[in-house]
Amino acid sequence: MSNEVLLVQQGSLYPALHRLEQQGWIEAEIKPAASGRTAKFYSLTVAGQKQLEHELNQWERLSAAIRMVVEPA
Amino acid sequence: MIPIRQRFLLRLRSLFRREELDDELASEFEFHLAEQKAELVAQGRSEAEAEAEARRLFGPVTPLRAQCRETRRTQWLEDLFLDTKHAVRSLRATRSFSAVAILTLGLGIGANTAFFSTAYGILFRPLPYPEPEQIVEVVDGFSGVGPVTALRGMGKAVDYAGYSTPQAVNLQLPGEAVRANVSSVSFNLGRVLGVHPQLGRWFSATEELSPTPPPVILSHHYWRSRFQASPAILGRQILIDERPHVIAGVMPASFRFPSPQTDLWRPIDLDPRLAGQNWGSGGFIAIGRLLPGATLVAAQGEIRTFAAPIRAQFPWPMPEAYGASAAVIRHDRAQSEAFRPKLLVLAAATLLLLLIACSNVGNLLLARGIARQREFVMREALGASRNRLLRQVLTENLVLVVLGGALGLLFALAIARTLPQLFPSDTPRLAEVSTDPALLLGAAVSLLVTVLLFTAAPLASSRWKRSSSRGSVTASRRAVVFSLGLIGLELAFATTLLIGAGLMGHTLWELSTVDPGFTATGLVSARVSAGPSRCAGRARCLALLEEIERALLSQPATRRVHWANAAPLEKEFAAAASELEDHPRQPRDPAPMLWRSVTSPGYFSALGIPILAGRAFTAADRADAPLVTIISRSTAERYWPGKSPIGKKIRSLADLQWRTVVGVAGDVAQYSLSGFPSWVEGVQYLPLSQTIFDGKQSLNLALLLETRSQEWQAVLQRTYPDIVVSNIQTLRELRSASVADQRSTATLLGLFAGLGLLLGMTGVHGVVAHRAAQRTKELGIRLTLGATPGQLVQTVLRETVLVAFGGAGLGVALAYPASSYLKSLVFGIPIHDPLSFALSPALLIATALAAAVVPALRAVHRDPVNALRQD
Fold first, then answer.
1. DSSP label at B258?
2. 3-class state of residue B814 by DSSP
3. A33 reaches B (C-beta below 8 A)
4. What is the rounded distance in angstroms from the CA atom of residue B204 to the CA atom of residue B215?
5. ipTM of this predicted complex?
6. With an 8 Å Cβ cutoff, are A11 and B1 in contact?
């Protein structure tokens, strides 16, 4: 049950993807998929790469800070 | 961050290729579901099961799609477009509502915009000089060429210059003589104002020392009208009062200083022989520019310290109090001071009109909102968010405002031309008034805000409360109270306007019934002026007048000819500090000022002015006969109450010659119908033959004619080409012109009040009709239960009566303090004139009831069965 609660509905991915696309961090390309249908393929842009690094750094700093507080020295 | 340009392209794409994007989105979702389903089938689920599970895992498609669209940030634009389309459609569905609302807004906006652009031109538009806010003027002290030129070198905070109010002179042009207005200025005025001639040069310092010939600078309009805008006029000579002057320059069209009527400028003359005149007469005003870093406060601080040194420079001893009340104020303020209270009253009046229009439309919208409650409840139930609904209502209002505003602008443009004509022609800067596009925009924006406030407030609070689960839609109590309150407010404002208009109307009536003290209103008056050589010496001057008289009387149409220094109400000032017998001068008191009328013998009988005691002037009162004078009745009563003034003596402090009082004449409105200014303490008449013509002054008299044709003008012109005849008016016209100020205010206030009343009427009509429609069912029941139509009408009208009385009361309460701003214009009635304060509310209540009766009658005459059947 707890699994169910935490489960994010798959569809919510799309608004997030669209937002990233509008920000210019990812770009989409429409091409045929393995199954033969056309699909939208998303890939990271240069700006997205930079943003990702920035966010990862942030996360590193934040989690390091949390670790320092939570874990005994 | 991605480059702005790229982001812009994305947005553009999302705006114009919306459908394509929606398709992409749909296929993206479809692909996801199909892949998920295939995966589940591969895990061994049945086709149907996989389909359902895939959809469950994905989540609700429609809201997710909406969320994806939201990220494109163009949703609001699409909504706006839809709402606008919807708004236009629904406004078209209720044509009469829309027409009334748009017309009302148009009237309000139009009147406001037109008036404010006019008022702005007079009161607030910056003067056409660099940094006009730095230009200051000295008031209540240091007037005159002597004191002002003395002041010139003293200011540490201000660079001072001086100018005279324009004076009329005779200008001899090739082939004709004309009247022109000349302002004398100090040479540094150009520097102080920061102005330069468009052609030629400005004056230099040495030109204040009586150069021959003195230079003169033309105004742009005079250059165009009299000199055909010829660039070759520089250096040409013209005769001003027979003295040659050389044209040195032409000013640009924007320079209308100190008034638009100014035709020429010439430098002051500091010739020591003119010291008496330069130090003794006023009419020359100190103007200056704040030096860098100086403030008005600093200027004010130093101005009074100059009093002592300037007093010491006078050719004669001056009282110690000289210059003690001098003050420095901004020049633009000094110019518009006299018109400020009146314009503020009119500004307040237009604002009231706009408020009336807004509350009227607000009420219409409210009624419409109530009628549409069900639509909103329905739409909310179907999932529209409240924000979304509010946005739509605002869009509808916006569409109304935009349409009303457009109509208003058209209206404003139409009346903006005629509006300045409603102001008296001596209003400063009237010629500069124009409808500023920026100002139109400003008016439109302010109105937009007003209407948004007016409509959004009731919307947010009281609309579409899910009021009716019973299925019948009635107005909430709050909405009714709000609506009636708005109407009450509207009627209150209309009452205030009506009272203002009433006060001015009553004033005009009083002025029209004032006895001016003279009767011959058909008499023609004209100003006759000639250069000094025509009047060199008294005998020659009197001979000229007799000659003119004979020439005029040779025309059969002209029966009598009289002379005076001024016709009554002509606005020519003449007064002299005097001493009267039995009233010895107190050294500390200022000498009484007596108004001076100089007349030929027949003047009194020609104008129908009664001689109450003694005699009128006769031909025997010649220059060499004993000096005589006549005083007015109130002067006699003031200085010799209960005694006969005949035989008493009066002298002017200028010539110190005693004159004997030989008669008392009835009081005449020489200055204005509402009396003399407070500094005039009496009126004295002198015979023309005994006043000075010393050959230095030019001839400048009022000619009063009893004539049946206009032939006399041609006769004068033929015989005396150098004599200028100007300002030809009958005494009736003079009288009418003298109340132009009151008339223009009365006209404008009357116009506003009429519009306000009209809007109030439509408002009341609308609300009563709407309320009656809302209560159809109730009225039907009452009718069925045996109420008479009369009783029903009473029921419907009860609210209106309440609101009308409340509104009228509030309007009176508002007008009570506000009317004091009209103080300078009201005449002959108390400022809280009982007639205006009683009749105006009465008129308003009567009008409101009349507007309410028709819809009330219509409502109660409906078939009760139909009424009940109605949902």
1. S
2. helix
3. yes
4. 10
5. 0.80
6. no
Taking an 8 Å cut-off on Cβ atoms, the answer to whether A9 and B59 are in contact is yes
State whether B28 and A22 contact (CB < 8 Å).
no
The CA distance from B488 to B814, in Å, is 13
Question: Between A15, A30, A38, which is nearest B71 by CB?
Answer: A15
Interface residues from chain B to A (CB-CB < 8 Å): 1-2, 6-7, 10, 24-25, 27-29, 31-32, 34-36, 38, 57-61, 64, 67-68, 70-73
Q: If you ran DSSP here, which 8-state letter would residue B230 be given?
A: -
Do the bridges between strand B243-250 and strand B199-200 make them parallel or antiparallel, or are there none, so unpaired?
antiparallel
Interchain CB contact of A42 with B (< 8 Å): no
Facing residue for B57 by CB, picked from A9, A35, A40? A9
Bridge partners for B668 per DSSP: none
| Chain B residues lying within 8 Å of A39, measured CB to CB | 28, 31
For B726, list phi and psi in degrees, rounded to 5.
-140, 170
List the single range of A45-59, B82-96, B439-453 with lowest mean pLDDT: B439-453
> Tokens representing B851?
């507007």
Lowest mean pLDDT among B379-383, B423-427, B658-662, B784-788: B423-427
pLDDT at B365 over 80: no
Residues of A in contact with B31 (CB under 8 A): 33, 37-40
Rounded average pLDDT over B784-806 = 85
Find out whether B827 and B742 touch, Cβ atoms under 8 Å.
yes
Q: Is the pLDDT of residue B502 over 70?
A: yes
Residues pairing with B266 in the sheet: B184
What pLDDT digit, counting tens, does each position of B375-415 carry? 777 777 776 666 677 777 778 877 888 888 888 888 877 77
Q: For helices B4-16 and A13-23, what crossing angle results, to 10°?
A: 130
CB contact under 8 A, A10 and B68: no
Contact A14 B2 (CB under 8 A): no
For every residue of B671-727, DSSP letters joined together read: S-TT---TTEEEEEEEEGGGS---SSSPEEEEEEEEESSSHHHHHHHHH-TT-EEEE
Residue B248: pLDDT above 80?
A: yes
pTM here? 0.71
Of the two residues B246 and B341, the one the predictor is more confident about is B246
- How far apart (Å, rounded) are the C-alpha atoms in residues B630 and B308? 41
Chain A residues closer than 8 Å to B32 by CB = 10-11, 14
Confidence of residue B611 (pLDDT cuts 50, 70, 90): very high
